[in-house]
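Quick log. Single chain, no ligands specified.
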Amino acid sequence: MKLKTLLLMAFVTVSTFAQETEFKFSKEGLTDFIVTNYDGSAKDTYNRALAWVKDTSKKSFVNFVVVSSVENENEKLVIEGVKQNFICSKAGGTNVCTFATFTIAITFKDGKYKLEAVGLSEKANNSINTVVHNLDDFSEYYDKDGTLKKYKDEVPVAYESLFNDLNKSLIAFMDKKKKAENW
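-> predicted structure:
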């Protein structure tokens, strides 16, 4: 019995201090940040991430603008981007899509970086209204019984894939760049 209790306490302690590796959507909001282990110095990882921003800005997936860059030992980037066709749904026989303007912050340390979802606003194509989303509370998407509201099935996937795909794109670009540097 003591062994089971000890193992349970160890599991709870480890899981409490475990860091998220993917963004997840829930009623309580989006995961605040994820930490990705990445072999290299903070300075090299920062420079590769900056190159990723410049390279990705040229592509149609997303348009980036570096909002701010902390030059103190290359430790942080704050990036604003636009994602076309963020959420699409059928309305009156036609496809209606929104585009998202998002802000992320990437903080660098030797051997890892932290990617934070800082903000997200959404605007329907051909609309003047912009909706600013609270990333810490998604209760608006849920019924009182805790189930996702009707016609909102695509929302969790859109949020998760936006931020998770950004991280995957960053890793793939940095790996490719690192390989090219060390040929």
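The two ends are 56 Å apart (CA to CA).
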